[in-house]
C-alpha cells in the first residue's frame, strides 16, 4: 500500500474528545446560515479524525445546506482540474448564468483550453456565489493535500472571499497542504477518556481495565489506531492469557503507512529514524557525531521530520538538532516492521556514537541488545547507573535504565523490583502513562504482598494525581492493608494519600474511615527503595526520628481534618496545630510539608504559605514533578484563601503549566478553581468565567477540565463558590445567597469550602433580610473561628456578628474589633471589605461623617488592587454619604466591566440613592428585595422609584431597564 492510500473512514457516530472542534465547525455553519460565510482548515495526520469531523459538519448542515464534496485522490494529484470537476459538477446547470468570460474559464472542466488563473479562480467564486443564492452551501474538501494544484489554489482563493456569502468551506488536510490565509484548526491527540470511549464502541465491554489502558496508551491519542488495535486483539489477550499488544497488528493501515514513509526516506534518514526508535531520542552531540561518521546530517533530519516520523526535541531540554520519535505508536510500528538485521544495525551504530559518560547506561544497553540474551552482570551495571541518575534527580534517565536492567535480569523477584523502580521514577519524571505501562509488567512477576502493595500504592498516587480520585481511594486503601503487616510507615503513607484522594472526590465517609484506621496502624522502619537506591537521610537515628515525625504529622492531620468534618472544632484546632508544628520541623519532605500547609490553611494560620513554599522547594530540589505539582496545588489554595490581595497568584499559573505538561488533571483543576476564586474575590468577572469554563471542561483544549465529570468534587466546590463572590461584588446579594444555599452550590459539596464560604453566605442572607438563616450560618463559623483563634478567622466572625447586630452601637463595636483583627492578620483586602460594610451601616444610621472615613479607606484599597466592582460600590456609598470621593485613578483601576462604577448617561440627573435603586430595578429586583438590601421600607423604595420615573420621563420598569442597558 502507498502512503498516499487514504485510511478508511471511521464508522459514523458520535465524535469523542472533539468538543472544541465541533463548536468551531458549528459556529462556522451558524454564521453561514446568517449570511456571513467563512472557511476552516482541519489539520492532522492520518487516523486522527479529520474525515469524521467533516462528516459531523455535513450532518450539522442537513436540512438547510446544499453540500458539495471534493476528495483528494493520489492518482489524480497531477491531473489539473480533477478536484474542481468533482466539486462543481452538481452546479453545471448554473454555469449558463455566468458571464461569458467566466463560462469560458470553466471550459477546461469539460475539455476546453486552459484559462488565465485569475479568471478561473474568479469564475469558481462566482459559481459558488450563484449556488448560495438559493440557500447556504457547505463545501467539504477532504484530503486536500492530494488535490491537484489548480483545484487547491482555486478553492483557497474562493475560501478567502466568502465573507459576504452564505457559504462555508471546510478543508481537511495534512500539515503540508498550502492553504495560507485560511484559519487552521489542528487536531491534537485524543485524551485518555475519549480514547477509552472509542475503544468501548469498537470492542464492547469485553476488555479488562488493564488491557484497555494498554491499548489506549499505545494508540497515543489516534482514533484509527484505537480501532485497529481493538480489531486485532486475540481471544487470549481478551481473556488475560496473553500479553497486551506491543504494536499495531501486522497489515494495519497505520502500521503499513508508517513503514512506507520510512522506506521512502533517503538511506541516512532511514538509519536515523531506526536509531531514534531504538533509543527514543538523540541529543545534539550524538546527532553531530552521526553527521560526521554515519552520513546523517541536516538534510536527513529534515526529511525524517517532514515525514512525520520524528520531531525536533524541546530546545530547552535537548539543545539544537536533538530529535525524538513522534510518539509511542510510531516507534512501536517502526520497530515491529524492522527486520532483525535493521535492528542490530541501529543498536550497533548507537554503540559507536554514545561516547559521553552520561550516555554509558544507554551504551551498555545497546551492546547488550546486540546479543539478545539476559545478562545479570550488565543488568547490575545498569541498575547502578539508574541509582546514580535517581540520586541526581535525573528521572528521565533513571526510569529507562531501571527498565532496561529489568529486561536483562533473570531472577523474577529482582526483575519485579527493578520494574517497580522504573515505574516510580517514570512517575517522578512526570510520565504517568509510562509508569502505568511499567506497573502492568510487575503483576505477573509478583509473588509476595510487599511488591503488590508498593505497586498499588504507586498506582493509586498516579490515579489520584491524574484526575480519578474515586478510583484511587480503594487502590490506596488496599495498598495500606497489604503493607500494614510489613511496613507500617508505608501503610500509613498509603492511607494519607487515600484520604487526600477521598477529600478531592468529596467522599468524606471514606475519609473518616481512613482516619480511624490510621489511628490504629502501627508504624515501623521503611526499607530502602525497591530499586535499591540509598536513603538520603544522614544516619539511622535521624531516619528514625524523621519517620516518627512524619507518622505523627500524618496522624495529626488526618484526625484533625476528621474532627473538622464532624464539627468538633476545638479538637480539630489542637490536632491541626500539632500537624503545623511538626511540619515546621520537617525538611526536605515535600509531601509532609504540603500536608502541614493544608493543616495551617484549615486553621487560617498565616504559616500555611511558608510551609507550602517549603514543600515546593523540596520537590524541586528532588526534581520530582508530581510532588512539585501537588505542592503547587497546596500553595495555590493557601495563597488564594489566605492571600491579602485577591490577585491571580504565581503558584496557580506556575502549577497549572506543570499540571498540564505532566497530565496531572486533578492538580490542574485545583489551580483553575483557585484562579477563578481569586478573580472573583476581586470582582473580575471575565477572568473568573474564563477559568470556570476551563474548570468545567468547556474551554480547555487539553482535556484537563471537567471537574464534575472527573469526580473532582473539592475543585468543583471551590470553583462553584466563585460566581457567588461575583454576585456580591456586583451588589446582587440575593443571587449570591441562592448560589451558596442551593444543593450542589459552593461549599455544600465540601466541608472546608462550606466553612470558608460562610461569611459570604451570612453577608448575602443579611442583605436580603433572611436574618435567621444568616444567624445559623454565622453560628457554625463563629464556633470554628473561636476554636482556631487565628486573627483572620476571628475578624470574619466579628464581621458576621456586625451584620446581624440589631443596634448600630453593637454593630460598630463588632466592626471596630473586626478591623483590628484584620490589621493583625495583614488581610488588607478583607479589611477594605469590612470598611465598606461598616461605612454603609454608619451612613444608613445617619452618621455620614463617620461613614465617609471608612468608605474612603475602602475606596483606596479597592482602587489599589483594581477591584472595579468594589470600587464602584465604595464610590456609590460615598456619594450617598455626601462625598463624591477622589477622582478615579485610571492607572490603579482595571478596565471597567458592566458592573463597574461608570454611570449610564440616563442616570446622570438622579441622586446617588435614586441611581442605585434604578440600577437594581434594571437588574430585575423587586421593591421588597431592594428594600431588604438597603435596609429601607418597601414604601420608601416605591417613593424613590416614582421620583425616578418622573425625572426620566418614563412609566414602567421595562422602559427603565432599556434606558440603562
**Terminal residue distance:** 64 Å
How much of the sequence is in beta strands?
under 5%
CATH architecture descriptor text of the domain at 540-700 and 709-788:
Alpha Horseshoe
What best-fitting shape do the alpha-carbon axes yield? flat
Task: Order the strands across the largest sheet as they lie in space.
Answer: 2-3-4-1-5
Would you tell me the overall average pLDDT?
83
Helix content: 55-70%
Total number of helical segments? 47
What value does the Rg take, in angstroms? 33 Å
Task: Produce the secondary structure layout.
Elements (H helix, E strand, L loop, with lengths): L18 H15 L4 E6 L6 H11 L5 E6 L10 H7 L11 H6 L11 H16 L4 E6 L6 H11 L7 E7 L10 E3 L5 H12 L5 H11 L3 H9 L3 H5 L13 H11 L3 H13 L1 E2 L1 H10 L4 H9 L3 E3 L2 H4 L4 E3 L2 H10 L2 H14 L6 H12 L4 H16 L3 H13 L4 H17 L3 H11 L6 H18 L2 H16 L3 H18 L2 H13 L19 H27 L2 H17 L4 H14 L3 H16 L2 H18 L7 H13 L2 H17 L3 H12 L16 H17 L3 H9 L9 H17 L3 H18 L2 H14 L3 H18 L2 H17 L3 H17 L3 H13 L31 H11 L4 H8 L3 H15 L4 H8 L1
Helix pairs in contact: 1-2, 5-6, 7-8, 7-9, 8-9, 8-22, 11-16, 12-14, 12-16, 12-17, 17-18, 18-19, 19-20, 20-21, 21-22, 21-23, 22-23, 23-24, 23-25, 24-25, 25-26, 25-27, 26-27, 27-28, 27-29, 28-29, 28-38, 29-30, 29-31, 30-31, 31-32, 31-33, 32-33, 33-34, 33-35, 34-35, 35-36, 35-37, 36-37, 37-38, ...
Amino acid at each position: 500500500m502507498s502512503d498516499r492510500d487514504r485510511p478508511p473512514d471511521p464508522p459514523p457516530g458520535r465524535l469523542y474528545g472533539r468538543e472544541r472542534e465541533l463548536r468551531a465547525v458549528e459556529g462556522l455553519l451558524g454564521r453561514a446560515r446568517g449570511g456571513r460565510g467563512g472557511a476552516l482548515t482541519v489539520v492532522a495526520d492520518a487516523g486522527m479524525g479529520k474525515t469524521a469531523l467533516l462528516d459531523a459538519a455535513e450532518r450539522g448542515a442537513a436540512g438547510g445546506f446544499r453540500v458539495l464534496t471534493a476528495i483528494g485522490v493520489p492518482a489524480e494529484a497531477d491531473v489539473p482540474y480533477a478536484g474542481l470537476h468533482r466539486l462543481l459538477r452538481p452546479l453545471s446547470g448554473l454555469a449558463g448564468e455566468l458571464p461569458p468570460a467566466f463560462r469560458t474559464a470553466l471550459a477546461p472542466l469539460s475539455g476546453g483550453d486552459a484559462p488565465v488563473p485569475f479568471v478561473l479562480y474568479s469564475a469558481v467564486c462566482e459559481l459558488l456565489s450563484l449556488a448560495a443564492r438559493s440557500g447556504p452551501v457547505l463545501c467539504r474538501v477532504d484530503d486536500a493535500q492530494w488535490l491537484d494544484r489548480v483545484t487547491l489554489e482555486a478553492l483557497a482563493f474562493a475560501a478567502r472571499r466568502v465573507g459576504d456569502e452564505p457559504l462555508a468551506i471546510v478543508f481537511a488536510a495534512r500539515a503540508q497542504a498550502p492553504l495560507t490565509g485560511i484559519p487552521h484548526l489542528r487536531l491534537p491527540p485524543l485524551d485518555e477518556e475519549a480514547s477509552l470511549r472509542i475503544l468501548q464502541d469498537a470492542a464492547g465491554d469485553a476488555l479488562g481495565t488493564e488491557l484497555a489502558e494498554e491499548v489506549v496508551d499505545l494508540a497515543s491519542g489516534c482514533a484509527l489506531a484505537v480501532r485497529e488495535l481493538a480489531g486485532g486483539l486475540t481471544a487470549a489477550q481478551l481473556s488475560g492469557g496473553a500479553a497486551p499488544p506491543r504494536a499495531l497488528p501486522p497489515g494495519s493501515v497505520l502500521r503499513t503507512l508508517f513503514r512506507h514513509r520510512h522506506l521512502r526516506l533517503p538511506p541516512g534518514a532511514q538509519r536515523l529514524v531506526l536509531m531514534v526508535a531504538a533509543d527514543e531520542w538523540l541529543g545534539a552531540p550524538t546527532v553531530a557525531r552521526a553527521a560526521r561518521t554515519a552520513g546523517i546530517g541536516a538534510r536527513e533530519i529534515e526529511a525524517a521530520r517532514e515525514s512525520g516520523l520524528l520531531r525536533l526535541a524541546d530546545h530547552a531540554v535537548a539543545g539544537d538538532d536533538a530529535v525524538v520519535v513522534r510518539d509511542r505508536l510510531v516507534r512501536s510500528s517502526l520497530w515491529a516492521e524492522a527486520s532483525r538485521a535493521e535492528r542490530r544495525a541501529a543498536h550497533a551504530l548507537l554503540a559507536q556514537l554514545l561516547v559521553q559518560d552520561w550516555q554509558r547506561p544507554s551504551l551498555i544497553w545497546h551492546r547488550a541488545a546486540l546479543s539478545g540474551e539476559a545478562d545479570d552482570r550488565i543488568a547490575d551495571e545498569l541498575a547502578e547507573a539508574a541509582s546514580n541518575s535517581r540520586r541526581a534527580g535525573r528521572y528521565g534517565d533513571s526510569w529507562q535504565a531501571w527498565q532496561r536492567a529489568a529486561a536483562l535480569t533473570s531472577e523474577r523477584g529482582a526483575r519485579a523490583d527493578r520494574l517497580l523502580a522504573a515505574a516510580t521514577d517514570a512517575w517522578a519524571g512526570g510520565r504517568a502513562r509510562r509508569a502505568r505501562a511499567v506497573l502492568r509488567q510487575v503483576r505477573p512477576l509478583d509473588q509476595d504482598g510487599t511488591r503488590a502493595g508498593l505497586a498499588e500504592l504507586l498506582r493509586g498516587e498516579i490515579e489520584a494525581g491524574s484526575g480519578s480520585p474515586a478510583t484511587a481511594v480503594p487502590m490506596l486503601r488496599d495498598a495500606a492493608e497489604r503493607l500494614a503487616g510489613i511496613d507500617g510507615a508505608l501503610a500509613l503513607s498509603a492511607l494519607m494519600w487515600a484520604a487526600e484522594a477521598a477529600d478531592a472526590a468529596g467522599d468524606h465517609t471514606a475519609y473518616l474511615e481512613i482516619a480511624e484506621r490510621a489511628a490504629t496502624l502501627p508504624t515501623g522502619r521503611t526499607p530502602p527503595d525497591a530499586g535499591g537506591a540509598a536513603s538520603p537521610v544522614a544516619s539511622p537515628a535521624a531516619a528514625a526520628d524523621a519517620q516518627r515525625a512524619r507518622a505523627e504529622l500524618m496522624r495529626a492531620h488526618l484526625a484533625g481534618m476528621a474532627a473538622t468534618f464532624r464539627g468538633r472544632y476545638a479538637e480539630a484546632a489542637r490536632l491541626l496545630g500539632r500537624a503545623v508544628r511538626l511540619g515546621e520541623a520537617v525538611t526536605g519532605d515535600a509531601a509532609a510539608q504540603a500536608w502541614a500547609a493544608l493543616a495551617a490553611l484549615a486553621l487560617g494560620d498565616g504559616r500555611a504559605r511558608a510551609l507550602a513554599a517549603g514543600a515546593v522547594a523540596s520537590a524541586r530540589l528532588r526534581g520530582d514533578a508530581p510532588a512539585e505539582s501537588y505542592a503547587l496545588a497546596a500553595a495555590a489554595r493557601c495563597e488564594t484563601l489566605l492571600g491579602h490581595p485577591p490577585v491571580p497568584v504565581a503558584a496557580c499559573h506556575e502549577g497549572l503549566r506543570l499540571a498540564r505538561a505532566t497530565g496531572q488533571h486533578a492538580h490542574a483543576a485545583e489551580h483553575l478553581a483557585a484562579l477563578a476564586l481569586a478573580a472573583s474575590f476581586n470582582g473580575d468577572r471575565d477572568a473568573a468565567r474564563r477559568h470556570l469554563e476551563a474548570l468545567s471542561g468547556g474551554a480547555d483544549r487539553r482535556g484537563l477540565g471537567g471537574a464534575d465529570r472527573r469526580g473532582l468534587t473539592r475543585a468543583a466546590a471551590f470553583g462553584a463558590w466563585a460566581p457567588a463572590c461575583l454576585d456580591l461584588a456586583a451588589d446582587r446579594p440575593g443571587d449570591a445567597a441562592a448560589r451558596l444555599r442551593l444543593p450542589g452550590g459552593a461549599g455544600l459539596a465540601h466541608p472546608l469550602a462550606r466553612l470558608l464560604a460562610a461569611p459570604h453566605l451570612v453577608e448575602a442572607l443579611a442583605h436580603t433580610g433572611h436574618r435567621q438563616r444568616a444567624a445559623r450560618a454565622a453560628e457554625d463559623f463563629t464556633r470554628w473561628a473561636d476554636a482556631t483563634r487565628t486573627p483572620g478567622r476571628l475578624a470574619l466572625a466579628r464581621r458576621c456578628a456586625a451584620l446581624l447586630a440589631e443596634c448600630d452601637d453593637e454593630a460598630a463595636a463588632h466592626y471596630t474589633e473586626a478591623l483590628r483583627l484584620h490589621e493583625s492578620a495583614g488581610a488588607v483586602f478583607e479589611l477594605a471589605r469590612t470598611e465598606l460594610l461598616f461605612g454603609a451601616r454608619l451612613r444608613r444610621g445617619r452618621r455620614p461623617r463617620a461613614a465617609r472615613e471608612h468608605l474612603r479607606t475602602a475606596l483606596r484599597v479597592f482602587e489599589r488592587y483594581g477591584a472595579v466592582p468594589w470600587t464602584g460600590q465604595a464610590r456609590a456609598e460615598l456619594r450617598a454619604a455626601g462625598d463624591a470621593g477622589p477622582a478615579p485613578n485610571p492607572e490603579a483601576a482595571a478596565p471597567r466591566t458592566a458592573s463597574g462604577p461608570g454611570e449610564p448617561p440616563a442616570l446622570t440627573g438622579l441622586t446617588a440613592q435614586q441611581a442605585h435603586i434604578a440600577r437594581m430595578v434594571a437588574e430585575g429586583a423587586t421593591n421588597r428585595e431592594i428594600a431588604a438590601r438597603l435596609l429601607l421600607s418597601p414604601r420608601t423604595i416605591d417613593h424613590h422609584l416614582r421620583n425616578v420615573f418622573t425625572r426620566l420621563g418614563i412609566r414602567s420598569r421595562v422602559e427603565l431597564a432599556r434606558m440603562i442597558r
